[in-house]
Design goal:
The structure is a homodimer of 155-residue chains. The first copy, chain A, is an alpha+beta fold and 155 residues long. The first copy, chain A, contains 3 helices and 6 strands. Chain A has a 6-stranded mixed β-sheet with strand order 2-1-6-5-4-3, covered by helices on one side. In chain A, β3 and β4 form a beta hairpin. Chains A and B meet through β2, β3, β4, β5 and β6 of A and β2, β3, β4, β5 and β6 of B.
């Protein structure tokens, strides 16, 4: 008996989850080009890395990723308890992650609670008229250390 | 010479700052009634206290304030680097705060980085037809410890 192919969900929530997945993948691949594509490049975007002061504006935020990626050889993540909320053209995602960062002289493990805020923006089609539509772009990232132990569960 | 009274700013950003001030005041006065008035009472609101797991839904979030307020005798705060962004009916505020909490058996000082997310909701007039309009209600709070030291400045 033929089974019907699963219908692709294309809700705003699903699009936000995909945007957030791109953020993990950019981290895991230490890809500055992917970070460039994920963030909105405005002077009001903000970023708090675990234990860092808040960074304001794309220039500072990008410089922090340059610094993190250049000092890290490998970053592995286990993602838990992803939670998404969409309100019009703004959405936010909360999750926990167990990060293992490998540096030249050792490695570090941390349990992190993170919040990402995205805004939906119109994207024009390319020169050949392809693409376009809307895209969820990252405008705020707040990550903070949790006490070590079992990854927490959203209750 | 008569001076003109300062014109009250009534921009969305100003309204969000005032909503966030109500949040500090609720903390400083350990007032559960004020917390009740500030938050949206939905099962999707979320809260991360410094070092705690994420709490989901107003019931859990409110229970956490009950617990914090009942074990705290006094909470004093110095607020730094408040930063606000409004996008339509959603807004977020980032700031740092130096919190001194006094308990029955001592006190604790912490430097905290916090993000609040608000949504703007219609509020109906009361039975006598007064009030109504819109109100910014808190839907997400993420507070995390920063290393002790001088309060950081947004650059």
């Amino acid at each position: 008996m033929a089974t019907r192919p699963a219908r692709k969900l294309d809700t705003p929530e699903q699009s936000v989850r995909e945007a957030n997945h791109r953020f993990y993948r950019a981290l895991a691949s230490l890809s500055l080009a992917d970070m460039d594509a994920i963030w909105l490049h405005e002077d009001w975007v903000e970023c708090v890395h675990p234990g860092w002061d808040m960074l304001l504006g794309w220039e500072e935020v990008r410089a922090s990723w340059v610094r993190i990626f250049s000092s890290t050889q490998r970053m592995q993540m286990e993602i838990h308890s992803v939670w998404v909320r969409v309100e019009g053209d703004v959405a936010w995602v909360a999750w926990t992650e167990q990060i293992t960062s490998t540096f030249e002289r050792g490695f570090d493990q941390a349990l992190v609670q993170a919040t990402n805020i995205f805004v939906r923006r119109a994207v024009p089609p390319d020169a050949e008229g392809h693409g376009g539509g809307t895209q969820w772009l990252l405008v705020a990232h707040h990550a903070s250390p949790l006490p070590a132990g079992q990854p927490p569960q959203v209750q």
